[in-house]
């Protein structure tokens, strides 16, 4: 048994008074068992069609005995390999349950299979293939921040048929208007990077792997004037997006959901602003952006060895977004400004680069690339 003492170290001033108390045998101690028992799945030898299923039920005989009552989370790991010894051959579900009866989302199992097999195109998947998976339940303390309380059940076996499923990138929205990009108000998708400025992922956030929803943001300089923010569905047709407010308002903006025009967004006070949108709830918030150090203004930017173009070219604007369309081989690269400042990190195809980060590992392909030199946010959008 692994044992972790849950009692915090007491203040030195109280140590003498409490040292005898902290050594008592009845103090709570966390005992992490070596394993727990998973029951045979109710589906038995039946083959589960993942495409037509919502979930698969897995059940433990009882909760792991941690030595005292505690809230426990459950999920599954699965593999086609003989065992779970190679992490590269193991996938996990993201959704966690609070009961010994765990409903594993079928789409998360299928997406894990796509990644384990390296499938990138629909024609790689045989939807009639019966795949045998070893599956084990994983339990942990619900509020654990590391794997020290993880307990793994013995594996059981299930059979499934797959379907093609690809993880979606975060859902990006676009700024457009008289004070954005070239100021032309052209909402043609071909004008992304010319008339439309993309928003980016937000540091510390996660995104739904099946819808792409989550918190996105844009940080930049705005002159006085009007603009809108379009959802992806609003490109070409204007029917979906944000409007109806001033950047200084902070909140209360209106989402157009195919109905009447909500009116433009306004900037009545020129300056730097942070715009945040919850793409699932369609809620937008704004605030003035005032970093500790003055915002730097760069005159040129490269991605690898390729020169990038400024996105903001409208009169009175201040550019902090850069774009380039590049065909790449597998490799590593950074963003580099005219000052020699370089940004990088380990994420692809989108992430938050920092000046002390490493090389960005890129996958071969042709991409339209965007980079914001204030936040370090970037995205590589594959062109097909």
TrEMBL record:
<dbReference type="Pfam" id="PF14292">
    <property type="entry name" value="SusE"/>
</dbReference>
<dbReference type="InterPro" id="IPR025970">
    <property type="entry name" value="SusE"/>
</dbReference>
<feature type="domain" description="SusE outer membrane protein">
    <location>
        <begin position="27"/>
        <end position="102"/>
    </location>
</feature>
<dbReference type="GO" id="GO:0019867">
    <property type="term" value="C:outer membrane"/>
</dbReference>
<dbReference type="GO" id="GO:2001070">
    <property type="term" value="F:starch binding"/>
</dbReference>
<protein>
    <submittedName>
        <fullName>SusE outer membrane protein</fullName>
    </submittedName>
</protein>
């Amino acid at each position: 048994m692994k044992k972790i003492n849950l009692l915090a170290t007491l203040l030195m001033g109280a140590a003498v008074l409490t040292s005898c108390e902290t050594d008592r045998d009845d103090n709570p101690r966390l005992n992490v068992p070596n394993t727990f028992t998973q029951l045979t799945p109710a589906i038995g030898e039946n083959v589960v069609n993942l495409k037509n299923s919502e979930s698969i039920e897995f059940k433990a005989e009882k909760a792991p005995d941690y030595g005292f009552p505690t809230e426990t989370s459950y999920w599954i790991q699965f593999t086609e390999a003989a065992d779970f010894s190679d992490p590269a051959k193991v996938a996990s579900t993201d959704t966690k349950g609070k009961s010994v009866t765990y409903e594993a989302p079928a789409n998360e199992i299928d997406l894990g299979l796509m990644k384990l097999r390296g499938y990138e195109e629909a024609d790689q998947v045989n939807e009639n293939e019966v795949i045998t998976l070893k599956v084990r339940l994983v339990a942990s303390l619900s509020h654990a921040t590391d794997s020290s309380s993880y307990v793994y059940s013995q594996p059981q076996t299930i059979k499934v048929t797959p379907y093609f499923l690809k993880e979606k990138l975060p859902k990006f929205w676009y700024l457009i208007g008289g004070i954005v990009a070239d100021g032309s108000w052209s909402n043609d998708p071909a004008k992304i990077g010319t008339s439309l400025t993309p928003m980016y992922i937000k540091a510390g956030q996660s995104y739904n792997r099946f819808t792409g929803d989550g918190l996105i943001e844009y940080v930049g300089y705005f002159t006085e004037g009007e603009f809108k923010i379009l959802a992806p569905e609003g490109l070409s047709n204007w029917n979906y997006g944000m409007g109806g407010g001033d950047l200084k308002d902070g909140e209360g903006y209106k989402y157009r959901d195919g109905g009447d025009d909500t009116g433009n967004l306004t900037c009545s006070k020129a300056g730097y602003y942070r715009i945040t949108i919850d793409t699932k709830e369609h809620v937008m918030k704004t605030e003035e952006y005032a970093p500790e150090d003055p915002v730097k203004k760069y005159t040129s930017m490269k991605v690898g060895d390729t020169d990038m173009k400024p996105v903001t070219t409208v009169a009175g604007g201040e550019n902090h977004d850069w774009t380039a369309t590049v065909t790449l081989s597998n490799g590593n690269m950074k963003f580099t400004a005219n000052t020699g400042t370089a940004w990088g990190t380990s994420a692809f195809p989108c992430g938050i680069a920092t000046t002390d980060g490493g090389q960005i590992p890129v996958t071969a392909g042709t991409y339209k690339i965007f980079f914001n030199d204030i936040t370090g946010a970037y995205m590589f959008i594959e062109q097909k």
